[in-house]
Amino acid sequence: MHNSLVAALDIGGTKIAGALVDGNGAILHRAQRPTPAHDDGETVMRAVENVLAELAASPLWVRATALGIGSAGPVDASAGTVSPVNVPGWRGFPLVERVSHAIGRHLPITLVGDGVAMTAAEHWQGAARGYDNALCMVVSTGVGGGLVLGGKPHAGPTGNAGHIGHISVDLDGDLCPCGGRGCVERIASGPNIARRALENGWRPGPGGDTSAAAVAEAARAGDPVATASYERAAQALAAGIAATATLVEIEIAVVGGGVAGAGDVLFGPLRRALRDYATLSFVQRLTVAPAVTGTDAGLVGAAAAATLGQGEAAVPAGRG
């Protein structure tokens, strides 16, 4: 149907956002609540229900033909459950089933991880548009990602494929909270960039800002410790990107998230480091580009995933 819309939910540790999205990726109506991340699972679900109720109150709601959910992970699209690391009240939480009950009408529901959602958005509307094989990543408080293979987002059986943050790039590196060692995330995420700069003697300005953005500002002003911390992050990202390219032959790596806001402080050393790691003939032409879909990537990507029916999570029989 030409005038049909897709409902989308973007669920993270900070906010739960909802939208009605048209066939061009434009958001026609939106709703948002803060995530009560430290409360019990039912309280978090109530926030989701409030967002859905606000969407359903729009006269456009009747045009929605599918619903896409992008959630912080891990997710299990095959079971319809989510266990976001930063929402401890949700462990194996039956989100698809609960959303299905909450909307009170039958809509096909698609669940994907937030990295896959961002990837779907960048492939549909952003920097990966026109590429059949791509890696898209979000570098912020964590490092997530997703893959486009053969022209379609590739979510994998549970919706977590492309989770580049937990590729090990330092065999004897620090223990990662995931249980692995030397993961990309443990080196390249914003908090780890800031931690490493502080440990090596960088000191924040008079405002006391110790964020990765403050480290980037110091690097831009020529601070060698701040610069070295970003170079180390860039090296970890380059190793992970090159490993991915070698494995599945991607043509472009798109980098978004707060840390990508550092601009050349990150992308300069990242492109240099890629030349060291992506050396085989079939990965040498790999392009790196900043993401362009911004803060709406989760919503636009959830809508794109629903349109494609990627990793469709069926509601258990007799419960829908």
TrEMBL record:
Gene3D superfamilies: 3.30.420.40. It comes from the Bacteria. Belongs to the ROK (NagC/XylR) family. PANTHER family: N-ACETYLMANNOSAMINE KINASE, ROK (REPRESSOR, ORF, KINASE) FAMILY. This is ROK family protein.
